Fold this sequence. Notes:
Blueprint: E1 8-14, E2 17-24, E3 31-35, H1 43-46, H2 50-54, E4 59-63, H3 81-94, E5 100-105, H4 107-118, E6 123-129, H5 141-148, H6 151-163, H7 165-175, H8 185-201, H9 209-214, E7 235-240, H10 248-257, E8 262-266, H11 273-276, H12 278-290
Helix pairs in contact: 3-4, 6-8, 7-8
Amino acid sequence: MGHIVYSEFSDHRLASGPVRIYAAGAAHAPAVLLLHGAMLDWAELSWMHLAPVLAQTHRVYALDFPRHGASRPWGDTLVDQALLERIVHEALNVLAVGKVHLVGLSMGAGVAMGYALHHPERVHRAVLAAPAGIGAKRKAQLLTWAFTRIAPVQRWNARYLAKKPELIRDTLRKGLSQGEATPAFEAIVLACQQEAERQARHGEKALDDWQIEAFEPFSMQLDFLPELPDMRVPTLWLRGSDDPMVYADDVAEAVRRTPGAQFIGIERARHLLPLDQPEAFNRAVQAFLVD
């Protein structure tokens, strides 16, 4: 895909593993850190529309989380919530950023949520888009837990996806509300296909450790709802009206529990908010960060 989204990047050792950090925008502008989602996501996918817009007014940073994009290899390291929060913390330190705005999608929103709760002194504001990490129970909880724990199946899934680019394309066509009319659809497909090839080449699982570790047989191990009354960082919660993965009731409860939380529902959008409705998403994020 090339480095079309950002103007520069640097490679670091964070939490004892390789992490790529991308950057764009004026060096002394207010800092924003973008945290992508799970599976085939990486920094040049979810933020292809938002990063160039924010870079006009902010210093934009974005991570490739472990086993995503250029942040490889990570061997058998367990990449869970605690490690991802540690990576965010070390990234801010190595970048010499004292305080930052966080924007996270799905898994990245869960990481941003946890980091804002545990390190409020380092966070100005947090945008939590299609947030994972909230809710006590999922549909088919036990079956999903069992499926996620079969590592050979997860690795087979990754290899299978890499060999089936047409399946990736079809999944995206169905998963984005505008289908092939989605802005930059071909670039989205290519970015996902490239990531699938990297997963297979490195013998990785289709699911992230973060996703697997979030599940227990009868409830979610990772659920920030009980902690949200302690949130000291201003938050904006975003959910697509047609998101099948993030339950509306869970987001409503999260907003209710979080002091001073703002919520925006984005119409005709599914889970991949920044890609599905980029103009509405970008407007919401920009307005919140400059409020």
